[in-house]
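Why does this matter for the project? Reviewers at the last site visit asked to see concrete outputs rather than summary tables. In response, this paragraph embeds two records directly. Each consists of the residue sequence and, immediately after it, the corresponding structure tokens. Nothing has been edited or filtered.
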Amino acid sequence: MKTLASLMVAAAWVWAAPPPPDCKAVPGWTQQGPVRSFEADNLFEYMDGNAEGYLTYSFQRMQGVTCVKGEDQIVFDISEMESPEFAWGIFVSNRNPNQPIEKIGMAGQIMERRAIFAKDKYFVEMAANPAKDHRPVLKQFVALWEKRIEGNTSLPPVLGWFPEDGLDQDSMRLVPESVLGFRMLRRGFLAQYAKGKAFIVMPEASTQAASALLKKLADRIGGTQPAQAGEEAWQANDKYLGRMCVFRQGKYLAGYANLPADADPVPLAQKLAAKIQ
């Protein structure tokens, strides 16, 4: 017998899940073949070598369908990620850096043969064939599903924590594993500046865990000196990461790295620490 709690969880899932991809939503388009459905343990059956790129962004499940109209075809997939942060992160990793980003959900792009966008914890992809300009119909499909998928349309709040002075806005991204190349810094956000880069690691379970991680990283870097930033901090001059300052603010580890010898990382770290909430 199902408990009230299990029924509430099931009801929440039904409410939260987006409608399955539907070709008939745009007049003249029909479904070719069955609806595709994949989870983390069998995504490789669909994507083969590309599956790992999704799994690193905490992929949960996917539904997809192929739509046809005459000789035209659109392969349409909706992937559910663990959170909106990961949906935005996989969008950034798949975007065309030479094309503008549009305000579709959190962010999106519509190109001649491809459209992608992220909304809430969902990443939507549409790939069109044959080779020609499919933007008019892609815009129709995108407009419909941007409305049908419920949830958050705001960018991850952590992006607003990076100080704007010298920031390359297009460089901000989610690093799904090994921030700064350290496996212990499991996941986080990275932003490039005119000098060096800033990073914010996703929060640890507690302030104690974050403090222990700060010390573990200091031991790994070696030759660190105490610094005044956040609640506790250190600075170093690393062979590979240049001048750097890493601090803890609550459950977060963050800081600056890859700064040249003439740049002081501590004032920069202080400005970043002041914005972390």
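We now turn to the second protein, recorded in exactly the same manner.
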Amino acid sequence: MTDEVSITLMENIITQSNLAACYFWIAEYYFSGFRKKTWQLLWKIFYDFYAIKYPKLEKYIMREHMKWRSLKHISSIMDITLQLFVRNACSNVFLARHISPKESEPTDDSPQWLSSFSEEDRGGFLLALHAQDIAGILFYSKKMNDKDMYRRIGKYFKKVKKMDLCQGYLSIIPYNNKKHILLALVLYLHSPEEHIILDEVDVEVCPEDIAWIKDIHENPVTPLYRTLVEKRLYSISDTIGCFQLQRFDSRCPPIKRLLGFHWEYFASYAPLWKKRFREYKAKRNATIFEMDFENDDYLEEFGEKYNYEPDEQSNETQNKSIREIKKRSPREWIKEVFDIDYVRKRRFPVYI
């Protein structure tokens, strides 16, 4: 399941538990065909856990993203994974995103500073911004587009806080969720200076690690059925049950049955496997969660090349992808990862 891959990656990065596992999971996602989405995932992790604490890293990620667009090499992906891994995560933006939006309480008196703004800009958003009312900011941001939101943030900080923001800031960042960027920006601009770390990038990915990742994804295993034994190196996390995982959906087959009887159907949603099935004239059958091949010859040829026999593997190998994940509360996960008391009871959304 791609959701479990992305959340396991995110958890490994922010807990700094295993760098090799981080490289493994980001490469799994990337080489499955989600190349552009891999960058969106890295940007998401950055803005959730690192942007307000390490603002200089933003330009570095942009440069590596631009380099990747030219070279399309996994080294840039691994580089940013490393830069995030070696820094201490901060949960402020992630938790702020999961606050329930709520209209700010009206006040009888308008503050004097508000009179310097146009009639169009006056209102709840600026008041919520001034009060650092995250629930209010989220509420009013839903009523405007990202450009208007950025314009008002810029005006507020220039007039009230005497801080100038960069023109065209939003347009140059190749991350699709602009309001995520703006929420992180607001929290950053309100952060005390002593909480900001203006560090330099001083670590590099080892060439041996790049070669190791390329070997996993570029060199086939003989015989074919040994592929998963040799290349499925790490297990998905069993502590991510606080997220709305696809396996928890009542329409999803039991996870062990999925591996034995339906792996091809679910694999077909990854671009890499979608291309492979198209090559052998197979289409999804959503009624029974299976792939229908045009004829038996295509089925046999596909099996000879790509059937890794997942249901025939040892329990150890199988459990790396289908291990039990118990449902748990966000409170437990946040306490475990950040040692912060948290009150949210509903599970977090899927992290992709």
